[in-house]
Amino acid sequence: MHPNSSSTFSSEVSVWSGLRIGLVSLGSMLLCLIAIDLAVGFAVGKPNADERPRAGQLTWYFDYGRSIEGKVRAMVGTEGTPPPPMLTTGWIEPPSSQPAQIEEGQDLLIAVYGMSFAAHITKQMQDQDKKIGVRMAGGPGATLSHSYAMYSADRGRHSASVVVLGILASSLPALATISHMTWNFEGPSPHFYPRFAVADGKLSRYTPSISTLAQLQTAARDDSRWEEMISEIATHDAYYDPLVFRSWALDESVLARLSRRAWGQRSKRANIERFHSASGFTNELGLIDVTHEIVNSFVTEVRNDRKLPVILVINDRGYADHLHKALAHFSNEEGALYFSTHELAPATDMGNFVKDGHFTVVKDQLLGRKLLDLLNLRLNRRSSAASVVPP
């Protein structure tokens, strides 16, 4: 026998024994992680599912990383399930619940197309001057394409003499999308809207095949139609990311959802950075060209209807005065009223915003009063508004 054979055999046994212990330990750790993952998932449940219509904050937190597909299907639910607000909002259609005529005691009706920022400012105008009526049509964080499409759908259906187009800086990059779903991964509202482009100096429009809630519900219950919808999004929406959008088996894993949430945030930042940098907006995919052409079309159409077009430029947190700079030449547009928030509520001052990113009530009041004063001057109108004094 070789003099070292016994020690060699002993070493081999020791190595295999150590390897076996390591594999057992690793397997035990994985089983513990799986058990914890399943237990947490069971405990927090799912928001929007039929059995959890009123989910708590903890449930929502652990569900943020679920795929867009998984969230939307849960929102749609089974046939006969009452749709949650996020499912019903934002669809391009005239606002049936909004005033179409000047009401008793009023002398001015204003039609507003945009997002909550625009709604807050114009609501302050109405609160300060009771002779004003407001017709609001919009969607959550509405991008310019959505607001313009909403205006187009509502054109000719009311007697408003002033028409406001709200444009939000943080939503401008989403001109390259066709649905709120793809660029609001954590809280998607699954409505669709057109995507615009400029070809040969003219504005062209791509309209998605799904344009109503009923059509979305039909697609969610028909696998082939659902796949067609996703293929359409992948083709026409620059924010589409299959790792964020598509549902897969690990959607039920809390740990996998947390990982996807981190990836989703990274994906959104990367998309925004294509269209916006520290120095302002870029013309990636014709962003600025399309923006200018939409605003030009809006101003021309409203003036042709013998109404006053108002371009409401909202520079929100993280965008300085970049939107104003991209649209400043419209301030000299004849026959239109241009108003930007950057002077009264600088986006570089975090004190101008509340936690959810909106302006403070005081800033909304000041912005509303300033816009009201500009309108009254343009219309040669006397106001019943009380003064608003800056703090």
Main features:
single chain; 391 residues; alpha/beta; five-stranded parallel sheet; two-stranded antiparallel ribbon; 9 strands; 12% strand; elongated
Structure notes:
This protein has 391 residues and is an alpha/beta fold. Helices cover 46% and strands 12% of the residues. The strands form three sheets. A five-stranded parallel sheet has the order 2-1-3-8-9, with helices on both faces. A two-stranded antiparallel sheet has the order 4-5. A two-stranded antiparallel sheet has the order 6-7. The longest helix is centred in the first third of the chain and has 40 residues. It is elongated.
Number of helices: 14
Number of strands: 9
**Biggest sheet features:** 5 strands, parallel
Strand order of the largest sheet: 2-1-3-8-9
The secondary-structure element order is: HHHHEHEHEHEEHHHHEEHEHEH
In the predicted model, the low-confidence regions spanning at least 5 consecutive residues are 49-53
CA-based shape: elongated
Radius of gyration: 27 Å
Spatial separation of the terminal alpha carbons: 97 Å
Broad structural category: alpha/beta
Mean pLDDT: 88
Could you tell me the strand content as a percent range? 5-15%
Binned, the helix content reads: 40-55%
